[in-house]
Specification:
By secondary structure, this protein is an alpha+beta fold. It folds into 2 domains: about 5-65, SH3 Domains (SH3 type barrels), CATH 2.30.30.40; about 70-370, Ribonuclease Z/Hydroxyacylglutathione hydrolase-like (Metallo-beta-lactamase, Chain A, 4-Layer Sandwich), CATH 3.60.15.10. The protein is about 20% helix and about 35% strand. The protein has 9 helices and 28 strands. A 9-stranded mixed β-sheet has the order 15-12-11-10-9-8-26-27-28. Strands 16-17-19-20-21-22-23 form a 7-stranded mixed β-sheet. The chain has a 5-stranded antiparallel β-sheet with strand order 6-5-4-1-7, with no helix packed on it. The protein is globular and about 80 Å long.
Length: about 425
């Protein structure tokens, strides 16, 4: 008998006992793709150990493969996404502080760390070098319990105000055909240490990256250009691919100022698993969306089933671009106590308006966050996405939690 399986349906029930070949008293519900260890079998029922209370599961609720898991981690104001596909672990950004690190080390991968095993992250995508997207990677690079495959990035770094030899805080620019272009672009980040006067946070990142690389804990870094596919393979018998749709090759258009430029040249990743698609747009803004729509003309590589809202639900977007993305569901990652008032009311309304669904779904890590009324502790707003290649389910925890009724779940359709 196999020693493990996965939940085949979302909110699969686990029963306390069996009576006359039927489950009695549901004591737990687990999300699709959740790992279960098989303890014993009685007919069509398996005794299992899993997250939360253990018990009995019916064979129809179990599968041989995990599928795709996407975790929108509540890291406050910023982005931090963990993806698990087959045996791969992928990060898209890591927030501004240790929040994502704490989630990985105190919850998600404690089962590995307790056995003194390394946690290997196969791919890290830094969409751009604003601190609310990349600074959290530093803590991971400094922890020798973590190893990394390829770290992908858009190639634009920030320089210090003092000692900057370039014309802008992002590097040199040239004028060509009535447009301004940024020409200071980095490919291999490890080689960048000591060659330029980066700002404090980029300096700390490059230092941590270089140290980890010297210890063979990082395979390489790659600037990801438009049209590149860092992966295109089969996972659980289904196609799994990630494609970059935006970033340029030799020079990047300068989008009116430094902030618009570094945000506007975020990596934009389109993920395909089976028949379903997902879009991660970093901090795209109005200027960059207009540029992209002009660049692609009648083509539309942006339409997907589920989209991460660009720039934390800011008001800096175009309705036409949202109509091109046209998702069933949108996820917004934002935080409290920030001056931007993310997510903005018009961003929330537009996310619902520009959707292919009759009943659009809009999720927010910030709105999913709550406080335990008894302990006053923060309950973080993790948004879970599970996909088997055909069906997508999105779940968030209820504010009042019971193991047999823990999740607020929706099927994407």
């Amino acid at each position: 008998m196999e020693t493990y399986k996965y939940a085949a349906v979302n909110e699969a029930k686990i029963y306390k006992s069996l009576v006359d070949g039927k489950g009695k008293k549901a004591v737990n519900r687990i999300l699709m793709g959740t790992y279960v260890k098989i303890v014993s079998q009685k007919g069509d029922w398996f005794e299992v150990e899993t997250v939360g209370t253990d018990g009995w599961m019916h064979k129809d609720d179990l599968a041989e493969t995990m599928g795709l898991k996407i975790f929108f981690i509540d890291i406050g104001q910023g982005d931090g996404v963990l993806i698990e596909a087959g045996k791969m672990k992928i990060l898209i950004d890591a927030g501004p502080d240790a929040s994502l690190y704490n989630y990985l080390t105190k919850w998600q991968y404690t089962y590995l760390l307790k056995k003194k095993e390394k946690v290997h992250i196969d791919h890290v995508f830094i969409t751009h070098f604003d601190i609310d997207h990349y600074k959290g990677v530093i803590k991971l690079l400094e922890d020798e319990r973590f190893t990394f495959g390829t770290i992908y990035h858009p190639g634009i770094l920030k320089f210090a105000e003092t000692g900057n030899k370039y014309g802008t805080g992002l590097g040199d620019t040239v004028d060509n055909g009535g447009e301004k272009y940024l020409t200071t672009i980095f490919d291999e980040l490890v080689a960048a240490e000591g060659k330029s006067s980066f700002n404090r946070d980029v300096t700390a990142f490059v230092k941590a990256l270089t140290a980890a690389s010297k210890k063979k804990r990082v395979k390489n870094t790659v600037r990801l250009a438009a049209g590149k596919k860092p992966m295109d393979q089969t996972v659980d018998g289904k196609r799994f691919s990630i494609e970059e749709t935006v970033n340029g090759k030799d020079a990047l258009i300068y989008l009116s100022d430094e902030g618009k430029t570094i945000n506007g040249h975020s990596l934009v990743l389109r993920i395909t698993f089976g028949t379903r698609t997902f879009l991660f747009g970093g901090d795209l803004n109005t200027r960059s969306e207009e540029y992209l729509m002009k660049k692609y003309g009648t083509q539309n590589p942006f339409e997907v089933d589920v989209a991460k809202s660009c720039h934390h639900g800011s008001a800096d977007f175009t309705e036409k671009f949202l109509a091109m993305v046209n998702p069933y569901a949108t996820v917004i990652s934002s935080g409290d106590n920030e001056g931007h008032a993310h997510p903005r009311a018009d961003a929330l309304g537009s996310a619902g308006k520009y959707s292919k669904s009759i009943r659009p779904l809009v999720f927010s890590t910030e709105l999913a966050r709550s406080v335990n009324p008894k302990t006053k502790k923060i309950i973080y707003g993790l948004i879970n996405i599970r996909c088997n290649g055909n069906d997508i389910h999105i779940s968030q925890m209820k504010e009042i939690k019971k193991e047999d009724d823990l999740w607020d779940s929706y099927r994407v359709k």
